[in-house]
Amino acid sequence: MEQTNFELYQSVNKDFWYIKSRNDLLERFIKKYFSTDYNVILDAGCGTGFNFELLRKYGNVTGIDNSVHAINACREQGFQVIMDDAEDTMFDNEQFDLVVAMDLIEHCDDTKLIKEFNRLLKSKGFVIFTVPAFKWLWSDDDDLAYHRRRYTLEQIKNLFESNGFNIEFISYRYYYIFMPTTLLFFWQKFRRMFSKQKKNSLAFTPKVLNDYLIRIMTKENKELVAGKHFRYGSSIIGVAKKL
Question: End-to-end distance of the chain based on CA atoms, in angstroms?
């Protein structure tokens, strides 16, 4: 991840619409698919630790990331984190009940990563994941985050199912804001004709829209967890269960 991107994520707080709506979605799916008993949870690609406060309500959480900046940011907040490679971790077999991979898979050798998740999970353990959708939506956001790819539903579904998982749920997300998001991504490309400076789309979010975006995404999250499948969106949410 570019330093400017890391600084942007450090500058926002848990009430920023992108973070708040993603955590809301994650918690809804944990409650639907995951036991609320004591669990061992891995936050893979934990970043600066936005998931920790939520995940700690559901068990013992360990975060891993390969960024020194991310690890330091987490440790400053008192979170239990380890510098590690998500594709080849130091953990024993079948150690975790749940792996959370929010916007991680697109950074990695995805086949190797999913096989590692399978190794780490106990029998019938879960992965809850998000990935960016549609290659044609590639933008400055992908370049700044060092993404390797964006996915279609079929691609990410096949990836899990060919590596020892059953897909319990999968859908596109950001459906209700898909058109403005798409226009923003294309505007980024147009802007690059006049400036070489890349800028994350989140940096263009007017603060006055924050509460509105939270309301829109809360509505969408409720529909997703109720089982609605959206036909398109700029991201994908999925729940996979180890066979």
Answer: 33
Q: Are strands 96-102 and 81-83 parallel, antiparallel or unpaired?
A: unpaired
Amino acid at 117: F
Q: What values do phi and psi take at 147, rounded to 5?
A: -70, 150
50-56: long-range contacts (C-beta < 8 A, 24 or more apart)? 50/14, 50/19, 50/22, 50/23, 51/23, 51/26, 51/100, 51/102, 52/77, 52/79, 53/14, 54/23, 54/26, 54/27, 55/100
Q: Rounded distance, CA 110 to CA 231, Å? A: 24
For residue 150, give the nearest of 136, 161, 135 by alpha carbon.
Answer: 135
Q: With 0-12 CB in 10 A as exposed, 13-18 as middle and 19+ as buried, what is 224? A: buried
In a 3-state reduction of DSSP, which class is residue 32?
A: helix
pTM of this structure: 0.91
Cα–Cα distance measured from residue 80 to residue 78, given in angstroms and rounded to the nearest whole number: 7
Closest to 84 (Cα-Cα) out of 98, 73, 70, 95:
70
Residue 169: Cβ-neighbour burial (10 angstroms; 0-12, 13-18, 19+): middle
DSSP output for 74-89: HHHTT--EEE--TTS-
Tell me the per-residue pLDDT of 160-169, one tens digit each, with 9 for 90 and over: 999 999 999 9
Q: Domains in the chain, start-ordered, CATH in brackets?
A: 3-242 (3.40.50.150)
Residue entry with tokens 């579904």: 157
pLDDT digits (tens, 9 = 90+) for 90-115: 999 999 999 999 999 999 999 999 99
Contact 97, 55 (CB under 8 A): no
